[in-house]
Amino acid sequence: MSKKQERTSLKLLDELHTSGAGYDVLRYISLPELLGTESTTLLYFMGKNLARKLDISVVEDIFTVYEKLGWGKLELVKDKRKEIIFHLMSDSVAHRLNAPFNTEFRFEAGFLAEAMQHLSGKQCECTEEINNKILQVEFRVVYTD
Predict the structure, then answer these.
(1) CATH assignment of 42-143, given 3.30.1380.20, 3.30.420.40, 3.10.50.30, 3.40.50.1220?
(2) What's the predicted TM-score (pTM) here?
(3) Collapsed DSSP state (helix, strand, coil) of residue 6
(4) What is the top-level taxon of the source organism (predicted)?
């Protein structure tokens, strides 16, 4: 790997301290406006790209990234042969789902797809489904090969 392509240690995340409001404004208001009609697709690939830059070696590293970046508490619910199901819940997820702007989780889904692809060595795609009733996001990672 060249210097620009080196993976970043997860210890860097320990040095980041923010409240999250600025992230939400950029993520759900500014970025979709900037990216236009292709924003959900671009955000998915931006998430995949971020996962490629971090040194993820076990599933627990993914959980750590989600918590440290303020995305919420991710937990593995089902691990089947062709798919894995995760749930994302936390106060930050509830706040985002109740916010006065449209929220989606394509960036987080892209990150999860690439991280699981890296760990499994299999091609992965990830979809998300929001359950507004219980303020939870379900991610379904499917092995495509």
Answers:
(1) 3.30.1380.20
(2) 0.87
(3) coil
(4) Bacteria
